[in-house]
Structure formats: C-alpha cells, structure tokens
UniProtKB/TrEMBL annotation:
Record domain HTH tetR-type: where: 14-74
Protein name: TetR/AcrR family transcriptional regulator
Organism: Streptomyces hirsutus
Protein keywords: DNA-binding, Transcription, Transcription regulation
Family annotation (PANTHER family): HTH-TYPE TRANSCRIPTIONAL REGULATOR RUTR (PTHR30055), TETR-FAMILY TRANSCRIPTIONAL REGULATOR (PTHR30055:SF149)
Amino acid sequence: MTEVTTVRRSRITPEREAELYAAVLDLLREVGYDALTMDAVAARTRSSKATLYRQWGGKAELVVRAMRHQKPGSIGDVDTGSLRGDLHSIIGREDDCVMEQNAALMRALAMAVHMNDDLRRAFKDLLVEPEVDEFQRIVRRAIERGEVPADNPALDYMVHMLVGAFATRTLIDDLPPTREFLISYIDAVVLPALGVSPR
C-alpha cells in the first residue's frame, strides 16, 4: 500500500485548519475537483500557496483530509450492543442536510478519482481504508456476540452495500440519501443478508 505522508514544518491551529478544510469543501462543491486550484484555496482562505503545499503536499491530500476532517469521529468506537443498533447509530450521527452535502461531494469526486492517480491514492489511504477498518471492528464485535456467522459470504460486501445505497440514491430515485432511507435499507437489505433480524 502506498502511504500518503505529510511533512509539517509549521503549526496551524485546529481552528484555522477547520476553516481551511471548510473552505476547500465549499470550493469543491462550487467548481468540482478539476477546477479547484491551490491558488483558489489560498485566495479563499487568505493563506499563502507555499503554506498550503508545505502543510498538505498538494491538492489531492488537502481535499481528502478536508473530507476526513468533516466526518463525525470514528465509527469503530460505536458499540450499542447489537449490529443493528450500531448501524442505526452511525446513520444517526449526520442529519439529512449533511448527508445531502456529502453526496454532492462524492459526485464531485467520482470522476476525478478515476482520472487522477494522486487523488485515488489519497482517497484510498486516508478515507476508504480507515473507514473499512472501522466497519470491520463493528463486524468483529457482531461475530463475537454470535449475531453473525463468521463464514457469512455477505460480510465481504457490507461496506459495498452501504456505500452503494448512499451513492446511488440520487442516481436511481432522483432523491438525496436520508436517515430514513438508509435505516430502512439497513433493515431491509443489509441485516437480512447478514442473517440478522431487523427487529
């Protein structure tokens, strides 16, 4: 696995970092990944381009770290005592407005990820793999509790099912993903595939 590393030569306060990340995501929604430039980020955030490159190395890492920063903490720490409770709890951490914004970001990045090796690598290393690892912790606990047989073939596709529902809601139904939709999808599709009662 290629590891994305950042050499930080100066400190940016957490508040300033959060402002920068918010500006990056706003620009990404406005113009898309290809038209997003470090010059535009520097202008929007009143930063020097040299500082941005020194802190993040380039556009790909800056964008993916901004997306990672806006996530509400580790999902692997969620432990309600049941797989259904854990999955519902994860969905409940973001309101419908935030989900719609995240879906828009995913659409903005979907084509760019396939066309840009740096972005794909940063996306995988900084966002996808950590998220998969966190989901695996939740699944391991469900297996240890005896909720899901360890040899259930659907386990390998759990993340695909959840991401697929989130990403394709707009494409198929022309509607944004919502808590209600994702919770009903978990109960109707994900849990039955894993052999877990949705009630």
